[in-house]
Structures are given as C-alpha cells and as structure tokens.
Amino acid sequence: MRDMGEKRRHHGHGHAVGSFGAGRHLEHEENKHKDQKLDMSGMNMETIPHLTMTLGHITTLDLSNNNLQNIPESIIARLLNVVVLDVHSNQLTSLPNSIGCLSKLKVLNVSGNLLESLPATIEECRLLEELNANFNQLTKLPDTLGFELHGLRRLSVNSNKLTSLPFSTSHMIALRALDARLNCLRALPDGLENLGNLETLNVSQNFHYLRELPYGIGLLVSLRELDISYNSISALPDSMGCLTKLVKFSATGNPLVCPPMEVVEQSLDAMRTYLSARINSADDGKKKKRSWMPKKLVKYSTFTAGMMTPGRAKVHGNGDGLLMSDYRSIDGHIASPGFLSMLSPRRLFSPRRNSPKH
After folding, report:
1. Same domain assignment for residues 282 and 305
2. How far from the centroid of its chain's Cα atoms is residue 282's Cα?
3. CB 168 within 8 A of CB 144
4. TM spans, by residue (predicted)?
5. pTM
6. Same domain, 91 and 211
C-alpha cells in the first residue's frame, strides 16, 4: 500500500487522500497484492480521510509517522479482523474507546504520542500479546489491566510519567519482557514472583524515586536480564541470590552498600554468593533463637480444660489454660532455678494449707 502514496505523488496528486478515485485505487491495490495490509504511514496526514473501501479484511493497519491528532471511532470499529495496529509517532492525545472492538488485536504500538492515559476498553483486547506505549505522557495504566490481558508477552511503557505499575501486573503470567525505565516509579507491584515467564526486566532510570526492590524479584525463576541502574537503591533483596538464570545485570548509578558495589562489579556469581550467604546466615540465626527456649516453661504454661487450682476460679472458654491474670511476673528471674522450682508438678498440684476443704 505504500506504493499507493508513491504513485500519487509521482502523478502530482499531492498528499491528500479521500476522493472517490483514491478510495477505488486503495481497493485496487489491496485486491492486487492481497496482503491484507493497509499502509498509510509517513504521509503527513493530520486527519484520516474518509475511506469507502471495506476494512473488514484488513489485518494490519499502519498509520505511523503522521500528524494525526485523533482516530475516528468509526474507523476503528470497522477493523474487525485487524491483528496489528501501528499509530506510533503522531500527535494523539487519546485513543478511541472503540479499540475494545478489536477482538483479534495482538500487537498495538502507540508510542511517540501525547497520551496521558489508555482507555479502559483496551482490556477487551484479550488476545493482545504486545503493547508498546513508550514516549508518551502516561501517569497511570488501567488498574485491572493484568486481570484481562493474560496473554500479554511484552509490555513497554518507558519514558512516561508513571509513579507505579498497576497491582494487577502480577497476573500477567505470560509476560516475557517488561520495560518501565525512565519513569517516576516509587515501587514495583507486589506478587512479582507470579511472573514465572519473565525473562527481561528493565526499571532503570527512575532516579531518586525508586529506593528498593521487592523480595519477590529474586523469585523470578526465568529472569535472564535485569537492569536497575540509576535509581536510589542501597540494598538488594537477599532473594536475588536465587536468580540462577540471570546472565545480564546492571546496577550502575545506585548507592549500593549491600552487597557493596565492588562485589556486584566483580561478577554475577560473586553477587549471588554474597546474597546466598546472607540467606544462610539468617536461617542459622533463626535456629539459634529457637534453641534457647526452656522446654519446661512451655510444658507448665497450660492446663487441660476444667482444671481447678486451689483458691482460683475455674477456667471457662476453649480450654487453652489458665487466664494470664493468674500469673505473676518476677522481673529478672523468669528462668532462675528458684522460679522453676515454683513450677514443679508437686507444688502446682498440692492444695494450699489455708484452702477450704471440699
């Protein structure tokens, strides 16, 4: 279809499209090549001309590199079989809501425009595999985007004004590549570990906004490339010691102290070894904390339901033991031999001398 534009310029018809002859020429070219692609890119159009041709058979529509400020709802609604829609490098401030009618759409490129948001109806494009919205003015993405776009494999939203990614991102289980660099991200969404197919993650150049990474980032079992450069991250999660498939990593421009930057720059193996050692030492510490607990204190702290102690009221409820009010704290002597003798079975179950006889 690009031949159409060249032929029209060659014959001196200018850049305007839309006459009856032009529409008939489009149909002729489409029938001639049978490539089901309509290419109207790079024609300096400010508006899309009225097209009389049938658009139902179009599978690829390229409107890129023009000066379009909007796309008519009616045209999008007629693209019932479009698989690829490319409108990058225009002056679009919004997308038509009818984009939700594109039930067969797999690739959408809206990069290089002036978009501040994406229509919620984009969630209806459930076959979408690639969404490129780089170089816009986006401040947020639809909150429930990930709940519907389960098949999305590539999400590119770099060079925008995003302060966060939607919480539903963790439901994009088919995602292979996520590019969110050059934004204002303050955090990454929870549940990141659910993205088991993610291979490439780029959250670089969020500068002073991004100060930490979630623990789940170390559980991305398929991750091969990770770029967190030029942020304000001082410590990497210990879980990153488990990223065994990682082959490319960049943390340049961060005030890293854990692990020290010299360890990171040494090699990926050195970084993994450092973080793995921290995990192991933390596990050892937990074992030591559990080991010092006196077993007898645990055994003597509860009694069976309905048990009576002399001079005390019967315990009612779920039978978990005596009420906390029945105990006296002895500061500094909780584990002393003298206190333990007070808890001996003979002392606990012997009636008090001044207790009434039953």
Report:
1. no
2. 27
3. yes
4. none
5. 0.72
6. no
Lowest-confidence pick of 27-36, 120-129, 219-228 = 27-36
Q: Flag whether 335 is in a domain.
A: yes
Q: Which two tokens stand for residue 192?
A: 């990141």
Same domain flag for 272 and 310 = no
Counting the structural domains of the chain, the total is: 3
Between the alpha carbon of residue 309 and those of residues 116, 296, 312, 317, 352, the distances in Å are 71, 19, 5, 16, 9
Q: What's the CATH number where 119 sits?
A: 3.80.10.10
261-306 pLDDT, tens digit each: 999 999 999 999 999 999 988 766 665 555 544 444 444 344 334 4
| Cα–Cα distance for residue pair 240/219, rounded to 1 Å | 7
pLDDT, mean of residues 96-117: 97
Which comes out higher in pLDDT, residue 355 or 115?
A: 115
> Strands, DSSP E only, in the chain?
37-39, 60-62, 84-86, 107-109, 130-132, 154-156, 177-179, 200-202, 225-227, 248-250
Range of the domain at 71: 1-137
- Tell me, yes or no, whether 178 and 114 share the same domain: no
